[in-house]
């Protein structure tokens, strides 16, 4: 443990981290990849280019500094990050590399202000935090490998079916090449795919939510093709999956992971809200509820730009007609002339208040602006934090007036 002097030094750097945190983490990633280019086989290049990963790390470092004398308070955040680390294959030997380059970045950005005492304190603090991550991840690696149908590292899966769900979303049904059992999962969890397109120097890893309830002999992911827009290039992995991968091809997967999961122990009403491809974990949760707890009331609300962007529409209609405990609603931002929906434009609080129970548990996923709007509406309605659940695709961002789960 850190002594009181070291804790005091760490806390004294909080204002500096608030101002310079992202500059430090950006410098850190640049130096680390220069010194250890092999790590580019693990990290998401797009998140680096768009600044999402440096921002997420800066927020994590800041939180660690604020809570350095009570790290147990950020343990839920640690576990969420550790889930992604396990899914990516982050191992104990990576932590010294990160620590060395992070301290060097602090020194580079802060210059003379990064005194020997500050660097020593942060060195000790990083060692303690790294040990927590390593311990938590060791347990997760063991659980993933030892569970029924589980495995360690990457396992080869065959694309059994490839189904176009909309103009931009395609589902991939994945069966293990070895024909053996596969690990079950919690509704809301994801698998991680590793690919190496022919024109790419490094392998690329991506998390994709499992888009159906557990219990099948396959995994299903539903992937949005990220096309080039403005100054943002097309998604490397999503384009590769859509354009190059077909039925019979092989994909490498790590075992299911993730801490954004449906609480199946409760009987309270559930409201699931999704925007765009954010429907993937919501559909898994929805199928699980109607199949396993048909007495539990569930409302599903999906927002899409229009019908051409809307995946799994007929499937949701079939479920709604089949199960009396399910109500579903559709919101189109810009519906075409012949398209029907329950609301045009955007989901807003006055409309939500007419269709859902404020005592429900709310789960939502989608683009960050969508999630910020939903979160703000629920907070204005007075829904308590413990009944608001959400997940970011990619590095954790922040929603106004709350911390990410």
Automatic annotation (TrEMBL):
It holds the Pfam family Globin. The record marks 84, 391 as: Influences the redox potential of the prosthetic heme and FAD groups. Its EC number is 1.14.12.17. Residues 149-405 are annotated as: Reductase. It comes from the Bacteria. It is an enzyme of class 1 (oxidoreductase). Its cofactor is heme b; FAD. Keywords: Detoxification, FAD, Flavoprotein, Heme, Iron, Metal-binding, NAD, NADP, Oxidoreductase, Oxygen transport, Transport. FAD binds at residues 190, 392-395. The active site is at residues 95, 137. The keyword Flavoprotein applies. Binds 1 heme b (iron(II)-protoporphyrin IX) group per subunit. InterPro entries: Cbr1-like_FAD-bd_dom, FAD-bd_FR_type, Flavoprot_Pyr_Nucl_cyt_Rdtase, FNR_nucleotide-bd, Globin, Globin-like_sf, Globin/Proto, Hmp. The record marks 29 as: Involved in heme-bound ligand stabilization and O-O bond activation. It catalyses: 2 nitric oxide + NADPH + 2 O2 = 2 nitrate + NADP(+) + H(+); 2 nitric oxide + NADH + 2 O2 = 2 nitrate + NAD(+) + H(+). Residues 1-138 form the Globin domain. The keyword Metal-binding applies. Heme b binds at residue 85. NADP(+) binds at residues 276-281. Residues 152-263 form the FAD-binding FR-type domain. Consists of two distinct domains; an N-terminal heme-containing oxygen-binding domain and a C-terminal reductase domain with binding sites for FAD and NAD(P)H. In the C-terminal section; belongs to the flavoprotein pyridine nucleotide cytochrome reductase family. Is involved in NO detoxification in an aerobic process, termed nitric oxide dioxygenase (NOD) reaction that utilizes O(2) and NAD(P)H to convert NO to nitrate, which protects the bacterium from various noxious nitrogen compounds. Therefore, plays a central role in the inducible response to nitrosative stress. This is Flavohemoprotein.
